[in-house]
Every structure is written in C-alpha cells, then in structure tokens.
Specification:
heterodimer, A: mainly alpha, 2 domains, two-stranded antiparallel ribbon, globular, B: alpha/beta, Rossmann fold, Alpha-Beta Plaits, 11 helices, 14 strands, 38% helix
C-alpha cells in the first residue's frame, strides 16, 4: 500500500467506510458497465459521422469532437453525479438515523469533510480519472496545446471542488432544520459562481477555443495583471471553495451556529470586494461606478442571511454573558452587539468605504453618490428589518416567513407595477430595483427623482417593523432576567 | 478514580430549561441508572455528556478533559448509544465494526480480534457477513452495543437502550448489559422503565423537570428514603413464640406473618439484625433463613415521587 493510499484509507476511516459500500463488486460492475457503454457509444457515434466526412482535417475534427464530449462527460460526472453524492451524504445519515454516530466519531472536522468528499465520491473520482487520461489522449490527437489541456483540467478540478463543497455545505446547513439556510447557499452560488461556471460550459463553442487555442491566453484584467481566463476562473473557484470548506468545518464544529461567524462575515466581504474591485479597477469610469456598486453590494445583502442569529441565540447570549458581571456590559448592550441588525449595518459600512473610494477614483459626482448611498441604505435597512422580524417573531408565528416574503416581493415590485399601470415613471424609483436601474442607466427624459420623498417613504415603512422588533427585544431581555 | 465531574450544568432550548443546575460525579466501575419520567431531561443530559450538545452554562470534565473545549479527546473515551438509532444499512456487521474500530483508532493488528470478540459478545456470530439492513430491531440494538465494545470505551452512555424492543430482545439486551456491569465497566444508563435497570445499577440519579432530585449509591438512597430494611425471618416451628420475642425487640416492627415466615421492618443496621438472630436462637427458636427484601427501583422511585408531592 503506498503512503498516499495509507493516509487516505487508514487515516481517514470514512473513506474506508464508503469504499466498503461503493466498491462492493455486486454494484461496482453496474457502474463500470454503464461508464464503458457511454464511452463506447460516444466513440461509435463520432466514428459513424467521421466515416461520412471528407477533407484533410476530418481526423482532427473527430478527435476534437470526442475531446469536447469527454469534457462534457467529465462535467456530468463531477458536477452532477458527485455533487448529488456530496449533497446527500449528511441527509442520508439523518434519514438512516446514524447521524449521532457520525457526529460522535472522534475525527476532526477536516477529516469528516475530506472523508465525505472523497469517500462518497470514490466512483465518480475513479471514472473522472480514467476520463482525464482519455481526454488528454484525444486532446493531443486533436492538437490541443498542453497549456490549454492543463488549464482545462485545473478548471475542472477547482470547479468540481467548488460545486461539491457547496453541495456538502448546503446539506450541512439543512441538518435538523427545514432547509431554509440551504436556500441562501444556493442563492450565493447563483450570484457568485453561476455566471463563471456557465461561461466555462459555453467556452468550448466559443470561437477562439475551437480554432486557435486563444482561450488559453484570453486575458482577464485583474487590477493591472493579465491572467488567462481559465486560470482566473480556477483561482476564483478555489477561493470560493475555501470559504465553502470553512463553512463546512464550522458547521461540523458548531452545528447550530450560522455559516459565517461575525469575523468571517467581514472577511468574506473583504475578500469579495478585493476580487470585484480587481475586475472593475482597470475599466473604472463614472459609467462603471454604479455597476460596481451593484455587484459589490450583493454579499452585503446575502452575508447577513448566512450569519443570521436566531431568537434562541439571542436568549442564550444574553444569559451566558449577562451572567458574567466582570464583562461590564449590560444585557441590553450584549443583545445589541449580537443583533443581526448590527452586523448587517457594519457590513454596509464596509461597503460604503469601498464604494466611496471607487467613486472618488472614478471621479463621480460626490453630491450624487453620497445621496445615492443614503437612499440605498434606507432600502437596505427596511429589508433588514423584515429579516429581523422573521428572526424574532418566528418562534410565535411559524408561518411569518410567508408574510414577510410577500411583503418583500411587494416592496421590490409594486412600485414597478404601478409605474407600468399608471405610467408615472418616478414611482419606480421607490423600488430598490427601479432605483438601481436608474442610477446605473439614468432614464431618458427629465424625470424628477425626489430623493427626499424616497427617504421619507422608507423611513415611514421602517417605523412599524422597528417598533415590533424593539418590543420583542425588550421581551427577550425581560424573559432572560426571569430565567 | 473519578471519571466524570459535572458542575451546575444547564441547557436551555429557547425558553425551555431542559437541564437545570445539574451536578454529578461518577467513579470508575460504577453503574449509574438515570431515572425519571419522560421529559425529565435525561436524554439532554446524556447528549451533553457525550458532547453532542453544548451546555448553555456550567462546566464538566470527563477523564480530566473539558467538555466544551476538548470534546474530541472525550469522544475517544466514551461510547454513546442514542435512544433512536440505526446503523449503516449498506455495510455488513463485520465491515461496520471494522469501520468503528478504525475511527476510534484501534491498532490495525487488533481490529480483527476486537471485531470477533464483539460479535461473539452480542451473540450475532451467524450474522457476521449479513448486511445490517437485514437485521431485526433487537439485533440492531445489540449491534449498537457491539460498536461500542469494539473500541472498548471507558464510559458507556446508554439512552433508553431497550426502547422499542420486544420482551425477548429486551431480555437479551439486558443480559448483555448485565455482563458489562459484571465486568466492571462504567456505565450511565437512562430509562423510565425501572425494571430495565434493576439488579445491575450500583448508583441512581433521579431526574425530574431538568433537575437531579436525588443521586447516590442505591443502598444509601434506599436507606435514606425507605428509612428501614424489610427482612423475612423463616422459622422451623414455634412461630407464635418467635413473634412474641420479636415484638419485644425495640428496633423491629412486625408487618406480616405468613406460614412460618415473619416479615419485619428494622430501622437500624445489620448489627441489630445479627443481634436479633442471636437472641431468637438463644431463646430456642429454630431460624431457617433471614433475608433482606431488596427494595425495587420502582418502590424507591414511587416513594420519592410521593414524598415530593
């Protein structure tokens, strides 16, 4: 047994556990037969069409077609089959009632993570490894350059790591819950990585890739560095995977805690801003400032959901730390510091720093962008209050989420609907969507945007949720004192 | 040697205080029965002790390790059997035991031996290569003990181990647990079915509404709660004379007389009982047996419950 095999199988018993099951001959041969049949079918279909073709480059075309199709097969194996396995690992433990044993295994969170990702995916990894060899062979025969092939392999590995860690993270957040935090994981995925990965899927049909291997050097300007696009996507995937893994480790260590700690939420935001600024910086002008704002605001909206503290957390933290008189903090200030609102406002403040800096570098009009920030904050704060309403009222009204989602949809779309039906364009600015559309691409014609009225409307809207939340906060404090 | 030391543990779930200010300690070799009605907090306490739940406040040390910070070290020393569990249905018994042996860092050369011993202990030799999904509920429950045995934990934490079992499977499991207790293993076993615990618990802790109402050695608690021992004295003949003699003895009170057996309650210790025996023999009574009636856990629990009310 080689030392690597020893480390994988002996040092990580979970891999051994899964190997018993997935490599059992009675089921292994079924997967093997399917895999061989798929590859054989793929070759057969391509060979059939090759035979009917004429021309000097028909060999090259045959090899290239097989090459692309093998990549698609690889994508199906690693992005779909493996991701389903990763996603179902913990839910299977739960449904099989083995989850307590799993949690109690004296293995580190990292061992559990690698154990699931590698062990549960032994078959996809095995077939993907065979596929890599076939892909390389057909790539060489189709005259793909080594550099391109290496970049594609690296991208496949990093993107697969990203998708599988994301799948595991989403299942670790749904354990013993109703799947609500899992949704946010997939929303984050759609916003952050979806476009990158989709771009990769469509790359093979992209002209430069098909003809002159240009994609291997097709550059992305990141700050002042030019990075080949495939390599850049690989690096972003690795960065995102790192956060996924940190989230999984956190969930395996503190199961009831949110994905992000408070510090983690800020670090995540900073890392994200670093990437987005890097991408926008080379093209910065007063026209790209607001698209930058929009993209950089995404984590400010979603990270608070990933680090959301529950009503129970509030009760617990007030009791725990309130009990220690040496901290010198009152229970009220502890609740305030631990509130989801405080974190979200803090994240917004960080975003303000970056957006103002970028606006200054891009030489945008200060009076305009400062007002815009204030308006955006008023939209953001109202949405935050709705989120906090959910947190503090969910224990009493377990269907409150439905009402709040309805209100959110109303808030986002009603002004737009009114604009279309009543044909009063200024109404659409009362929706965050309409407002952003306006600042990114100012409407033609002279529509008067009354910033003050937007602020007043948002302030009025905030009053009732703020009162309701304060009432619950006082209730928590009173309850805690009684307990 | 102290294995467990719990100080003022508290666990809250929102407004519910499931475990409230619990303090407990356990020495090596003791078998503690955690008894109490449903919802008393037994499962929560066990889940805290096995590191599945973090206490809201309070401290605890197991084997000298802190419960909240050194939980990975603690997990190597404990074996926890939850109330509702299953095992990896896609594995055979042998594979499952091997996996747990590996996970608990049993030396590779010992694994095969440990697996064989565990299978023998739970008497499932003929199912060794069967998939777990093909086992009956009772067998899975015994297999649960098997996976604990394979890594030979220093402390067994068993939460309602016989729940959902038929009488036969219950007896088989009870035999396995008795075997463990006779071998000097340290065990905490929770149950609300007291007959499950009778006979092999050296200590009990009675829980109610998240608190431990009473804890200690069974004999001590029995003495403390019942206040007297119930003793059966069988005589060969002269039953009336024996009754008259016993009536003169200050610390004894006759409760029933049936055939030639007189049941008495004696408030003092064994020395007084020996004195009574000598006295009866001196007076010419032919004493056949003197035996103490062991108070069942049910009696004890009922007595405590009624005194609380």
């Amino acid at each position: 047994m080689s030392s690597i095999t020893k480390i994988l199988f002996v040092k990580n018993p979970l891999i051994k556990r899964y190997s018993y099951s997935v490599l059992r001959p009675s089921q292994f041969w079924i997967y093997l037969t399917i895999y061989i049949a798929v590859v054989a079918l793929l070759l057969f279909i391509n060979y059939s069409s090759y035979k009917t073709k004429t021309g000097a480059d028909k060999n090259e075309e045959f090899y290239n077609n097989v090459y692309y199709q093998l990549i698609v097969l690889q994508v199906i194996t690693l992005w779909i089959w493996a991701a389903i396995n990763s996603k179902s690992a913990l839910t299977t433990e739960l449904s099989d009632k083995t989850y307590d044993f799993f949690r109690l295994l004296p293995l580190s969170a990292m061992q559990k993570t690698t154990g699931i990702l590698l062990g549960r995916n032994l078959l996809p990894i095995l077939f993907a490894a065979i596929n890599v060899i076939l892909t390389l062979v057909f790539g060489f025969l189709g005259k793909r350059s080594i550099s391109l092939q290496l970049q594609v392999i690296l991208l496949l590995i990093s993107s697969s790591l990203f998708i599988n860690t994301l799948a595991l993270l989403s299942s670790s957040t749904t354990v013993k819950k109703r799947g609500k935090t899992s949704i946010i994981v997939w929303i984050l995925f759609l916003f952050f990585a979806g476009p990158l990965l989709l771009r990769f899927i469509f790359l093979p049909t992209h002209q430069p890739f098909g003809k002159n291997n240009e994609v291997e050097i097709y550059p992305v300007k990141f700050y002042n560095i030019e990075i080949p696009i495939l390599l850049f996507i690989t690096l972003v995937c690795l960065y995102m995977s790192l956060w996924n893994i940190l989230g999984i480790l956190r969930k395996f260590t503190f199961e009831t805690e949110p994905i992000f700690s408070r510090k983690g939420a800020f670090l995540y935001l900073l890392g994200y801003e670093f990437i987005v600024i890097g991408l926008f910086m080379p093209h910065l002008s007063d026209k790209t400032i607001y698209p930058f704002w929009l993209v950089s605001l995404i984590p400010v909206v979603f990270t608070p959901v990933g680090s959301i503290k529950s009503y129970d957390h509030y009760l617990e933290c007030c009791g725990l730390r309130g009990g220690h008189s040496d901290t010198g903090k009152s229970m009220t200030s502890i609740l305030f510091l631990n509130s989801n609102l405080t974190l979200a406002v803090g994240l917004f403040f960080v975003w303000v720093i970056f957006s103002v800096l970028m606006a200054m570098i891009g030489k945008a009009d200060p009076s305009r962008y400062i007002f815009n920030i204030v308006i955006i904050f008023s939209f953001y704060f109202f949405l935050l209050l709705l989120l906090e309403l959910y947190v503090v009222y969910n224990p009493i009204y377990n269907k409150i989420a439905i009402l709040l989602v309805f209100l959110t949809i109303l808030y986002l779309f009603l002004p737009l609907l009114l604009y279309f039906t009543l044909d009063i364009p200024s109404l659409c600015f009362y929706s965050p969507i309409g407002f952003f559309a306006q600042i990114i691409e100012p409407f033609e014609g002279k529509y008067f945007v009354n910033y003050t009225s937007i602020l007043i409307v948002n302030a009025i809207l905030c009053v009732i949720p703020a009162c309701l939340i304060s009432k619950r906060y006082f209730y928590i404090l009173a309850l805690r004192r009684k307990m | 040697m102290k294995i467990l030391e719990v100080n003022s543990i508290r666990r809250e779930f929102g407004t519910l205080v499931a475990v409230n200010d619990v303090s407990l300690s356990l020495e090596k070799g003791q078998v503690m029965g955690l008894i109490g009605p449903n919802g008393a907090g037994k499962t929560t306490l066990l889940r805290i002790l096995c590191t599945l739940l973090r206490p809201t406040s309070g401290t605890a040390q197991l084997f000298g390790y802190d419960l909240t910070t050194q939980y990975l070290d603690i997990r190597k020393h404990i074996g926890f059997l939850p109330d509702f569990f299953n095992l990896y249905s896609d594995l055979t018994l042998k594979e499952c035991l091997e996996f747990f042996a590996l996970a608990y860092n049993v030396q590779p050369e010992l694994i095969s031996k440990r697996v064989d011993e565990a299978i023998e202990y739970i008497e499932l030799q003929d199912k060794r290569d069967s998939l777990i999904r093909h086992l009956s509920r009772g067998m899975v429950q015994r297999m649960g003990v098997g996976i604990l045995l394979v890594h030979d934990p220093d402390l067994f934490l068993l939460d309602e181990p016989a729940s959902g079992l038929d009488p036969k499977a219950r007896i088989q499991l009870r035999n396995v647990l008795k075997k463990l207790s006779n071998e000097g293993k340290t065990i905490i076993i929770s149950s609300h079915i007291l007959t499950e615990l009778s006979g092999f618990c050296s200590h009990i802790a009675i829980m109610n509404k998240g608190r431990i109402e009473l804890a200690g050695a069974v004999d001590e608690i029995q003495q403390k709660i019942m206040g007297s021992k119930t003793v059966d004295i069988s005589v060969l003949s002269d039953c009336e004379k024996a009754v008259a003699l016993i009536s003169q003895f200050p610390d004894a009170r006759i409760t029933t007389i049936k055939d030639n057996t007189i049941t008495i309650e004696i408030t003092k210790g064994l020395e007084e009982l020996a004195e009574l025996n000598t006295y009866l023999i001196k007076e010419g009574i032919k004493v056949v047996t003197i035996s103490e009636q062991k108070t069942s856990l049910e009696d004890l629990f009922m007595k405590i419950s009624s005194s609380e009310q």
